[in-house]
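Action item from last meeting closed. Structure (410 res):
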């Protein structure tokens, strides 16, 4: 085992230990008393369910993580990467197609192994707590649609990246940066109208009090909005949400049908104001710019390590290749990704506070946003008192109690 292997091994173990420690600390925060702001929203039985929901999901997460690590170590130290490389090369299809075969098999292998866990989470855990509305037919068709999109969109992109690194020499990394950036921008534009409707129905919000209130608010903050869409989230889950996606004429705000059923008009306007706040504060654009910059750094570092012999020795490989180098570099890059992820989550939590303030200032109705957050948390069995270290590692949103205090004090 060389130095590169030791780094990757220690990174994997350290990541598991850190997240397990955070989980343990998080579970120790649980208690029977409903926090004061939620009294009257969370009844005692519902709050008890939220505690149990967290325990069950945390323990299931440990089992899943241990399984994933065990499979990786067995495959790695059993020279599975070498065996698969030799088998892929035996087809004599050239470096790009061989790379697609190699990476495709690894992805398929991981997908098949994770399938029982996905089924259990959906049809046992979510079912037990009254969330699941997904049928076996929807579950299967979602998987098939996801597979087809991966092949039709991801396949050509991966082939292009492999070809650049195979034939473009030292310029490969920034060629890839340009191509992948353009690809991501195109996806952002087409996703709301072409991709997302493959999985859910988006129906324009019907005329009435809610639509009038939303359109009036959008006009008051000079936000161009042709329509608001209702997404049939209830086909899969009782959980509720709202989101903003896309740019320009293709930007789309969608409210889950479950959200509309559970909230008042003023609360829904407040939720929408929060989403518009992200757009007005340029949070979405800033996140994209940072993501593109990170992509460029990653591709540059990849160009430095993709042919490094020590990287291939760490995985017992007998021959170097672009496709295997990409896989192995991804593992070596994980410490950088870990710290970048923490930075992005800290920034995201700050953005959530800003979007909340925007909603309060423009609606002049902080209580409706606070009430909406309370109902969302209760309906989704959210954890109200997460441990600070768990929040630091995992949360892209501030804990709901902190958000509510900030809203009511603004």
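Sequence:
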């Amino acid at each position: 085992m060389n130095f590169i292997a030791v780094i990757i091994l220690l990174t994997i173990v350290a990541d598991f230990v850190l997240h397990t420690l955070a989980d343990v600390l998080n579970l120790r925060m649980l208690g029977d008393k409903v926090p004061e702001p939620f009294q009257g929203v969370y009844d005692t039985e519902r709050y008890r369910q939220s505690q149990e929901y967290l325990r069950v999901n945390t323990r299931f997460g440990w089992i899943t993580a241990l399984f994933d690590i065990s499979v990786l170590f067995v495959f790695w130290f059993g020279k599975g990467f070498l065996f698969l490389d030799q088998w892929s090369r035996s087809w004599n299809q050239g470096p790009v197609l061989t790379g697609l075969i190699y990476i495709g098999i690894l992805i398929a292998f991981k997908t098949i192994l994770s399938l029982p866990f996905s089924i259990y989470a959906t049809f046992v855990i979510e079912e037990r707590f009254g969330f699941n509305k997904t049928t076996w037919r929807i579950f299967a068709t979602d998987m098939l649609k996801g597979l087809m999109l991966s092949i039709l969109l991801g396949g050509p992109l991966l082939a292009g990246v492999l070809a650049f690194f195979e034939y473009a020499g030292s310029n490969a990394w920034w060629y890839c940066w340009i191509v992948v950036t353009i690809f991501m921008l195109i996806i952002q534009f087409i996703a709301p109208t072409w991709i997302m409707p493959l999985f859910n129905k988006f129906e324009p919000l019907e005329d009435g009090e809610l639509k009038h209130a939303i359109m009036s608010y959008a006009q008051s903050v000079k936000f161009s909005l042709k329509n608001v869409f209702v997404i049939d989230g209830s086909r899969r889950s009782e959980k509720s949400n709202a989101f903003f996606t896309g740019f320009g004429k293709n930007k789309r705000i969608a409210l889950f049908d479950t959200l509309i059923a559970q909230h008042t008009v003023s609360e829904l306007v407040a939720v929408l104001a929060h989403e518009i706040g992200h757009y007005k504060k340029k949070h979405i654009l800033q996140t994209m710019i940072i993501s593109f910059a990170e992509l460029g750094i990653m591709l540059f570092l990849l160009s430095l390590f993709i042919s490094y012999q020590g990287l291939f020795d760490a995985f017992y490989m007998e021959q170097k290749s672009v496709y295997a180098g990409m896989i192995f570099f991804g593992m070596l890059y994980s410490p950088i990704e870990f710290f970048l992820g923490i930075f992005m989550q800290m920034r995201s939590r700050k953005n959530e506070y800003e979007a909340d303030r925007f909603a309060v200032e423009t609606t002049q109705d902080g209580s409706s946003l606070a009430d909406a957050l309370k109902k969302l948390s209760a309906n989704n069995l959210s954890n109200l008192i997460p441990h600070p270290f768990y929040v630091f590692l995992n949360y892209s949103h501030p804990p709901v109690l902190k958000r509510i205090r900030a809203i009511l004090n603004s």
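Note appended to the action item: Residues 1-175+265-410 form one domain.
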